[in-house]
Amino acid sequence: MQSFEWVDAESVEQAVSLLGEGNERQPVVAKAGGMDLLDLMKNGVVAPRRVVNLKTIKGMDGVRFDAKQGLELGALVTLARLSRESEVRRRFVALADAAEHAATPQVRNAATIGGNLLQRPRCWYFRHDHFHQAGGDDVERVRAGQNQYHAIFDNQRTVMVHASTPATALVAYGASVELSGPGGKSRVVPLSEFLLPPDMNRPRDTVIAPNELLTRVRIPAPGAGTKAAYHKQGERESYDWPICDVAVVLQMEGKTIRQASIAMGWVAPTPRRATEAEKLLVGKTLDEGLARQVAQTAVKGATPLSKNAYKVPVLEAVIRRTVLAAAAA
Ligand SMILES: Cc1cc2nc3c(=O)[nH]c(=O)nc-3n(C[C@H](O)[C@H](O)[C@H](O)COP(=O)(O)OP(=O)(O)OC[C@H]3O[C@@H](n4cnc5c(N)ncnc54)[C@H](O)[C@@H]3O)c2cc1C
Q: Which is higher by pLDDT, 10 or 129?
């Protein structure tokens, strides 16, 4: 690892200005919990000349709920806090559960929701300094290689999946992120447009500019009768990444589903909405048969790679169970 300068930022404005002094050859990077950044530095994927510590900025870790505006999370809210926060657990249970099941207790205590959304893919080709420095097209290497955990949808141009599991729940809830840039300017971007398909030859997998900070995550207020559930399916219960994860948000009137949102993570380059399957639910009362039909529809069109066809039936089962769990919540 090459040596670098460390700055404890005191404000968003100062951090933005420091980030703006970087360039492609000598990057200046932000650090929140540092859980991903330090791995990337140790693997030689990132070699910053300066690291800007965001944890010293006051007021970037608020959690606020308003019945009209919805939920506002400061980017520095940790995953541990997100999983425990009563307003989040009561009104956005799929997000609280996603945060609770991400990573390990130690990681969740340090990792922030902002850094989590900005982490780079866990693809072992991407993380390996040999492959990374060789550059070029990852897709062909991974197609011929160890692709057990890669994408089964939308995998023509990239086969990597976005790593964030809270992102799956946030996409199901229709969340947006607030980005703050130079001159006090900020913009709000829907999360589904913020996340880009991972690319080994690009320094980030989102639309954030090098001199912008992610300052807040916002989720619209849930309508009356909103129910939700989340499930992360791994090879083991803890300390592991998922095979897939699913978040379901239903708006119900009695037993009738009025609106449905199903987001699937770790199966496509970015969390994918099962839009055709969602339509099957609207205006209906859920039973086992409908849940099965919804799950079968959601996995239609999957194009698995040489070693990950097993993900299709796993995803189908997880969708069926999560839809049933949401309606019964
Ligand atoms: C064993 C293990 C298991 C894991 N399992 C999971 C899992 O199941 N699900 C999951 O989602 N994650 C998992 N993780 C990953 C972990 O959750 C992430 O590394 C962590 O959430 C990143 O957050 P951070 O605050 O530490 O980010 P950092 O490492 O500080 O930053 C990540 C990136 O974001 C940038 N950045 C950070 N904050 C900002 C900001 N506010 N504005 C602009 N740029 C910013 C940094 O420059 C860096 O590029 C796992 C990690 C480990 C080690």
A: 10
